[in-house]
Amino acid sequence: MTAILARFQLDYGEFKLDVDLELPAAGITVFFGHSGSGKTTLLRCIAGLQQAAQGFLEINGSIWQDSGRGLFLPTHKRPLGYVFQEANLFPHLTVRDNLHFGLKRLKKKPDLTNLEQTVELLGIDHLLERLPERLSGGERQRVAIARALALNPEILLMDEPLASLDFKRKQEILPFLSRLHQQLDIPVLYVTHSQQEVAQLADTLVIMENGHILAAGPLSETQNRLEVALIQDRDATTVWQATVAEHEPEYHLTQVAFAGGFLSLPAMEAKIGTPLRVQIYARDVSIALEAPVATSILNVLPAIITDLADNQGGQSVVMLKVGSETLLAHITRKSALLLGLHTGMSVFAQIKGTSTLTHQ
Amino acid sequence: MLNSADLDTLLLTFKVASLATTLMLLFGTPLAWWLTRTRCAWKGIINAIVALPLVLPPTVLGFYLLVLMGPAGIIGKITSWLGLGTLPFTFPGLIVASVLYSLPFVVQPLQAAFSMIGEQPLEAAATLRASPFDTFFNVVVPLAKPGFLTATILGFTHTVGEFGVVLMVGGNIPDQTRVVSVQIYNHVEALEYAQAHWLAGCLLLFSFSVLLLLYSSQKSQPIAHPLK
Q1: In this structure, are A224 and A206 located in the same domain?
Q2: What domains are defined for chain B?
Q3: Which of A175, A199, A234 is where one domain is finished?
Q4: Which of A28, A31, A321, B1 is most buried, with most CB under 10 Å away?
Q5: Are residues A193 and A252 both part of a single domain?
Q6: Which CATH number characterizes residue A93's domain?
Q7: Cβ(A141)–Cβ(A162) below 8 Å
Q8: Is the distance from CB of B207 to CB of B157 less than 8 angstroms?
Q9: Domain tally, chain A
Q10: What would the mean pLDDT of A14-26 be, rounded to a whole number?
Q11: What are the chain A neighbours of B124 within 8 Å (beta carbons)?
């Protein structure tokens, strides 16, 4: 399964990148970290836009860089697709010519059905004759994604493709990315600092800090680790796999089933049995010692404390087990002390109704 | 009215300016690209040398060229050894001098246009399978089009307007080096003010209309962000 091997060492004085990764050849791998953590630099090293002094990179059996042997494949010879943070379209070319720029340069005669499908999937067919300056930010980014995918690349690299867009535009593109997720059979490496994008897109999660890998592995394993939650601080989240179980139209609610029970969520239009991901921010989870009898919070789940730790800012991160799922809670240290929380304790986790929900 | 000698100088001036501009674009484009991209320590020195004609009196440049290209100068020795004779007071010598004299007017607008493009389009092109060479001709050149227009026009008009360098290096030889600016000087020396008026008027009209064309075309094509 392992098909991407990446080792890079790069020293810019105040910033050092030192990574050694094995990644699966399928699904979306999200590189997550704060700005300056080195995630974009890592992606650029994989693309060959930056050359790490010490580096080894193997993708699907072909070696793109091996500094030991003085081998470095220049970017234009790597069969990849790259989506930049700014759409980076050529301003002198129409959307159509932007899309064909790479295709014209392929050695093999390109398969145009791929392009047609991508154009349709991304909903940009009506924009083909326009110049980039006449597109909105969201449209530009969709064209950029199509331009990268049109090449039928062996791997797709995306550097914060949504970061320069406002909330509305993000919501316009995320569904496309989700759909791509289902339809693409190539590995995607995706850089972001947004928990929402992690929750919605990641199969594999790589968490970076100060040029190092803090954690890497399947989403469910990686993001539920306590030290990861501590680093992520207020952004720490858990993502649960769930299925739609029952609709309650009278309350505008939908019940979903997960490995530890049921959750009430805002009503959604999805058939019973539809799989989905539920994202729960640790800051939206509070803890009670007894089952609250009178509370406005719908989602109260019995849980067991498996671990807890304090951060620098007077906050405690509590790791809980709900059924077989892990849940993180972010509470004040004072509350943790007053409640006398400790490992192994049985408690009730109250999830405020703000948890995000994403179709998959 | 213009007499046939005047027309000959006009024709010669056009020839010199066209040839010099072509050569400047040919050498100036890679030079400007290199100056934009390089981190080489020599960059500052090369930049300064290219820009020198902007500040030097043309007679100084002309004087050094005269010495260097003369029989005792390095360039003169090389050209003699090659069997080309010496360059001062010949048409090729005038071209060499014109190219050096007007080069900054070509290199600097190109450098400005190239650095406006920035790194992003080049990286985008690389991720779309375009080699650096391919990228230069299909991304950089189209995006730097306003820069090329400015460089061509400034290089051409500046060559047409040169006088000091021509007088030092080219002399005053009919059909060889006698360009319009020199011919105007001849007329004034000979107190032929009417003739001088005609030629000076031609030059004034030409330069003004070309510059007008340049600046009005820039207005309609604002140099916005190179990338959208």
Answers
A1: yes
A2: 4-57+96-220 (1.10.3720.10)
A3: A234
A4: A31
A5: no
A6: 3.40.50.300
A7: yes
A8: yes
A9: 2
A10: 91
A11: 82, 84, 88-90
Q: Which of B124, B129, B130 sits opposite A88 (nearest CB)?
A: B124
| pLDDT at position A233 | 67
CA separation for the pair B146, B141 (Å, rounded): 10
Following CA atoms B126, B131, B136, B138 in sequence, which dihedral angle do they give, to the nearest 10 degrees? -80
Residue A167 belongs to what domain range?
2-234
Q: How many CB atoms lie within 10 A of CB B114?
A: 22
Among candidate residues B130, B133, B19, B167, the one with its CA nearest the CA of residue A103: B130
H/E stretch holding A308 reads strand A299-310
C-alpha A288/C-alpha A309 separation (Å) is: 18
pLDDT at B227: 42
Mean pLDDT of chain A: 87
Residues A205 and A348 occupy one common structural domain: no
- Residue A288 and residue A297 in contact, taking contact as beta carbons nearer than 8 Å: no
Length of chain B: 228
pLDDT at residue B120, as a whole number: 94
What's the pLDDT tens digit per position in A47-90?
A: 999 999 899 999 989 999 999 999 999 999 999 999 999 999 99
Q: Measure the CA–CA gap between A120 and A126, rounded to whole angstroms.
A: 10
Nearest C-alpha neighbor of A31 from the set A223, A148, A193: A193
Distance of CA A271 to the CA centre of its chain: 25
Q: What is the rounded CA–CA span in Å between residue A297 and residue A351?
A: 7
Helix (H) or strand (E) holding A119: helix A112-121
**Residue A148 CA: distances (Å) to CA of A144, A158, B124:** 6, 9, 10
State whether A50 and A11 are in the same domain: yes
Q: In what order do the strands lie in the sheet with A346-351?
A: A285-288, A346-351, A299-310, A315-322, A325-332
- What value, to the nearest 5°, has the Cα angle with vertex A221 and ends A220 and A223? 75
| Percent of residues, chain A, with pLDDT higher than 70 | 95
**Nearest CA distance, B133 vs chain A (angstrom):** 11
CB B187 within 8 A of CB B178: no
In DSSP terms, A279 is beta-bridged to: A239, A356
Minimal Cβ distance to A92: which of B120, B123, B142? B142
Contacts of B123 in chain A (CB under 8 A): 49, 75, 82, 84, 88
Residue where a domain terminates, one of A217, A234, A251: A234
Which residue positions in chain B have pLDDT lower than 50? 222-228
Sign of CA dihedral B213, B216, B219, B220: negative
Q: DSSP assignment of A37-105, as one string? A: SSHHHHHHHHHTSS--SEEEEEETTEEEEEGGGTEE--GGGS-EEEE-SS----TTS-HHHHHHHHHTT
Interface test with A, best of B127, B138, B140, B141 (most A CBs within 10 A): B127
A342: exposed, middle or buried (Cβ count in 10 Å: 0-12, 13-18, 19+)? exposed
